[in-house]
Amino acid sequence: MKSGFIAIAGAPNVGKSTFLNQVLGFKLAITSDKPQTTRHRLLGVHNDRKEDLQIVFLDTPGLHDPDKPLNRVLVDTAMAALEDVDAVLFMADVTRKGLEASQKVAELLQKSKKPTLLAVNKIDLLPQKKALFPILDQANSWGEWSALVPISAMKGDGCELVVSELAGLLPEGDPLFPPDVITDLSMRFLAAEMIREKVFRLTEREVPYSVAVTVDEFLEPEEEDGTTAISATIHVERSGQKAIIIGKRGSMIKKIGTKAREDLETMIGTKVFLDLFVRVEPKWSTNAGGLRKMGFDS
């Protein structure tokens, strides 16, 4: 069989996590329309018994010019993921901003010397198919690619072709994970990410980028039809941000909690009791101690 590791790399907000979720058929990676939603290396296992294939995907934070300590950690995380993989899935998108950012990322990826497939995402945004051809020509000029595939990760168009092309870049070998394993991430970690996703989607300006979530307690039910109890803290950097997260008469924290609980119940498969707190941690994203406290290797 074919088996191996594939890093999903690219500029922020080009659809890397959406692609991973689409291929896995499972919401592993959180998504939003804001850059730098992904902050950690996420491992997702795709098994195809019919094709005798196992691809271990490593979804990575978006590559960009970091201007803050947290952003430098994110970029370091993404670059470290490229070192030990068999090949790279480089994702770009068809927007002007996405193409400009992706051209810079292409220069970094060419230096890695890894076999790289380039997928140009968000083709569903184009008004006409003929608009795609100059974009593909532009993307192809950035370097040497094993294949160039236009896709819509949101709709799934082209994703099977990407997987098929990536399979050709992998070595023959035994499975790296048992067939029933989707990820190496804990439910505790995934719960924190689900909560942070709601903050990203429901708040604006600097608030999402100043937020981290830690799970204080995760109690699994003792009975089969019982309730999972989760207690979590949303950390912000300023008291004004805390007020925004809580909202007028607690309206925002209630909305965040309700939407997070719905996703958590789907993921875990039980009813969920979710208790949220908001705490001010001044400048946590700009100092080594704060970053370590929130689970980042600074």
Automatic annotation (TrEMBL):
Gene Ontology MF terms: GTP binding; GTPase activity; ribosomal small subunit binding; small ribosomal subunit rRNA binding
Q: Taking the first listed entry, what is the main subcellular location of this protein, grouped into a coarse class?
A: cytoplasm
- Entry-linked Pfam families: KH_2, MMR_HSR1
One GO cellular component assignment for this chain's record is: plasma membrane
Q: What is the annotated localization of this protein?
A: Cytoplasm; Cell membrane
Query: Region entry G3: which residue ranges?
Result: 59-62
Where in the numbering of this chain does the KH type-2 domain appear?
203-282
User: What residues bind GTP, as annotated?
Assistant: 10-17, 59-63, 121-124
This protein's source sits in the domain of life called Bacteria
All residue ranges annotated as the Era-type G domain in the record: 2-172
Q: Where is this region: G4?
A: 121-124
Q: Does the keyword Metal-binding apply?
A: no
- Enumerate the residue ranges of region (G5): 151-153
Stretch list, region G1: 10-17
Would you kindly state one Gene Ontology biological process term found in this protein's UniProt entry? Answer: ribosomal small subunit assembly
Annotated keywords: Cell membrane, Cytoplasm, GTP-binding, Membrane, Nucleotide-binding, Ribosome biogenesis, RNA-binding, rRNA-binding
Q: Name the job this protein performs.
A: An essential GTPase that binds both GDP and GTP, with rapid nucleotide exchange. Plays a role in 16S rRNA processing and 30S ribosomal subunit biogenesis and possibly also in cell cycle regulation and energy metabolism.
Q: How does it assemble?
A: Monomer.
In Swiss-Prot or TrEMBL terms, this protein is called GTPase Era
State the gene name recorded for this protein: era
